[in-house]
Design a protein that fits this description.
The protein has 20 helices and 2 strands. With about 450 residues, the chain is an all-alpha fold. Helix 7 packs antiparallel against helix 9 and helix 12 packs across helix 20. Pfam families: Xan_ur_permease.
């Protein structure tokens, strides 16, 4: 008993020391292997966090293609299937060193909004087959550029990476607030009941995360989401009719809608891939920060390659291009879970959900305000991780300008995206995202502003 007491005292002392130093102990490190039950619960928590982003793009694409209910449901199932497959590849890392695909850190993958703009033009010209073929061909650019990541990374010193991580969390806040209000297009957008549920879920997650201890703290988001979901049922905010209408089982099909390989369809998507490369580099650096893992240049390159490979797998099964999701990085510092096994388990859960549409629909009808409560905390954690990273940077006049410029432009574009909508060609694509716009500004300033040498003048 005395031995156990001594161990507990040492553990508590270690945690207090880490908190005093601005560090947080991970309950599960990258290499840790929680039990099957814990991995499944934590994995499902990741799926809930990413679900809205995963299904949003196929719903939009289905509308562009004029699909009915059955084909729309297939695109959603295909998106879940591909997200599961590529999340496993990205989290595990496969292949020999020179050609490795996957960063090897806990990562959730999904379809990206960067491809929505060019998709509208391509689908109107060549149909859904042109969209699939165009994204596959254009992904060759991303695959090729993954082998040039190493020389590019010298332009990403701590002041740039810290700015990008901070910006990533801050730009996601608008997404969380949209969820809190009820979701875009909601008839009750901004209603007090929505904001009340968001605040309720927010407090539950914060309290569980802080007070529940090692056993339940990692489950804070899931516990908050379940309680919020249950509370919303008697309030009439959950439509179970959609679950009744969904089919029980559905198998994936190869090339269901065909694929049209023409370079004219690929060109509009090149900008989208440049944006996702920039964002993926930022996400991977964020993952390194929150998982307390040293991320090497070859790891980042392997992560970018996973995006490209996923963008080939997706269209074959009826989904769009794959990209590394940033929102799930917020779960890691909040739940203190960085286990690779959990992310891989989440991948298998998404694969199973794609085969059973009723289950996927049950998750998809979760009220947006519930996700809003979770999103505010998760994305805030990403921003806090970036601020923690910047705290280690010496704030010279040069570094202050880099941080200020990056945040100003990145947040400005996020708040007013219409300002950059008229920029010509590739510029419009690169500055359509707050994350990519802020990253570009940080990179340009880092190159343009040289460090001043401090010259001490002696007084004669």
């Amino acid at each position: 008993m005395e031995a156990n007491l001594e161990v507990n005292v040492k553990r508590l002392a270690k945690e207090e020391t880490q908190e005093e130093n601005g560090e947080m102990e991970l309950l599960y490190g990258v290499e840790d292997s929680p039990s099957f039950f814990i991995s499944s619960i934590l994995g499902f928590q990741n799926v809930i966090t990413a679900f809205g982003g995963i299904v949003a793009v196929p719903l939009i694409i289905a509308g562009m293609a004029g699909f009915g209910v059955i084909d729309t449901a297939y695109l959603v199932s295909a998106a879940l299937l591909v997200s599961g497959i590529v999340s496993i590849i990205q989290s595990k890392g496969v292949g020999p060193k020179a050609f490795r695909v996957g960063v090897g850190l806990p990562t959730i993958m999904g379809t990206d909004f960067a491809f929505i703009g060019p998709a509208a033009a391509v689908i109107s010209t060549g149909g859904i087959a042109a969209y699939f073929g165009g994204t596959m061909l254009a992904s060759l650019l991303e695959f090729g550029m993954s082998y040039f990541i190493k020389p590019l990374m010298k332009f990403f010193p701590p002041v740039v990476t810290g700015s990008v991580i901070t910006l990533m969390g801050m730009t996601l806040m608008s997404v969380a607030m949209e969820w809190a209000a009820g979701g875009v297009g909601s008839a009750t957008y901004g209603a007090p009941i929505n904001l009340g549920i968001t605040a309720f879920v927010f407090l539950i997650i914060a309290m569980v995360n802080h007070y529940a201890g090692k056993k339940f703290a990692p489950l804070a988001v899931l516990i908050g989401a379940i309680i919020g979901y249950i509370v919303c049922i008697p309030l009439g905010m959950v439509d179970f009719q959609q679950v009744s209408n969904a089919s029980w089982f559905a198998l994936p099909q190869f090339f269901k809608y065909g694929i049209s390989f023409k370079w004219e369809y690929a060109l509009p998507f090149l900008t989208g891939y440049l944006v996702t490369i920039i964002e993926s580099v930022g996400v991977i650096q964020t993952l390194g920060q929150v998982t307390k893992t040293e991320v090497k240049n070859e790891d980042i390159a392997a992560g970018v390659r996973a995006d490209a490979v996923g963008s080939w797998i997706g269209p074959v099964l009826g989904s769009g291009p794959a990209a590394t999701f940033s929102q799930n990085a917020g779960l890691i510092p909040m739940t203190r879970n960085a286990s690779r096994k959990v992310a891989i388990t989440a991948g298998y859960i998404m694969i199973l959900m794609s085969l059973f549409p009723k289950f996927a629909t049950f998750v998809s009808i979760m009220p947006m305000p519930v996700l809003g409560g979770a999103g505010l905390l998760m994305f805030g954690n990403v921003a806090a991780a970036g601020i923690q990273s910047l705290s280690r940077v010496k704030f010279t006049n040069r570094n202050m300008i880099i941080v200020a410029g990056s945040l100003a432009v990145g947040l400005g574009v996020s708040f007013r995206p219409e300002v950059t909508a008229s920029l010509p060609g590739i510029l419009g694509g690169l500055f359509s995202s707050g994350i990519s716009a802020g990253t570009i500004v940080a990179l340009v300033l880092n190159i343009a502003l040289k460090e001043k040498e401090i010259v001490e003048e002696s007084i004669a």
